Input
Amino acid sequence: EDQVTQSPEALRLQEGESSSLNCSYTVSGLRGLFWYRQDPGKGPEFLFTLYSAGEEKEKERLKATLTKKESFLHITAPKPEDSATYLCAVQARSGGYNKLIFGAGTRLAVHP
Amino acid sequence: GAGVSQSPSNKVTEKGKDVELRCDPISGHTALYWYRQSLGQGLEFLIYFQGNSAPDKSGLPSDRFSAERTGGSVSTLTIQRTQQEDSAVYLCASSLNWDNGYTFGSGTRLTVV
Output
């Protein structure tokens, strides 16, 4: 069964304190791994898609990396506005189309 | 429109009543998805539309749940005889290409009392 596990469930950082969020996955043929950001009361906002092991993508203070079993979202020198829930999702080849399977997310709080 | 629009944004209903949730996807997006997000839980897939057809309804929790899409655009998710366990945020998303990621709406928060 395709599965996505994110850790930690919650993370508290001081402004400027870099850290990483983890997304472990079990999937029968990965088509893509997606990262989303979700603010309270809003829908998830697309951040990145990664397709193959070794791939990296960056956006401002965020960098996503991918291995054959997991993905990391690295946050460098975070600011309070980076506080949100970060969701990881995978799309499997067995799905045949576009269904994404989501993890439960990591709630990030960045304090001044 | 510029984004995915969902209505209503909040809905409180009595147990046993029927509810309809509406989704207006981004114009031109042929794929449309419904997900459910319960408190502290991940997003749970409900149904996928390609055009007006639904090739995958496997996530609908029971036969009280149904959805349709007309004109390749607007979609309606209907929940009949609502139960308290149906309380959640119902999210709609659309996409043009699978690897662009979905664009989500802000969701409908459903509370069954």
User: Anything to note?
Assistant: Chain B is about 0% helix and 50% strand. The interface with chain A takes residues 4, 31, 33, 35, 40-43, 45, 48, 50, 55-56, 91, 93, 95, 98-107 of chain B (CB under 8 Å).
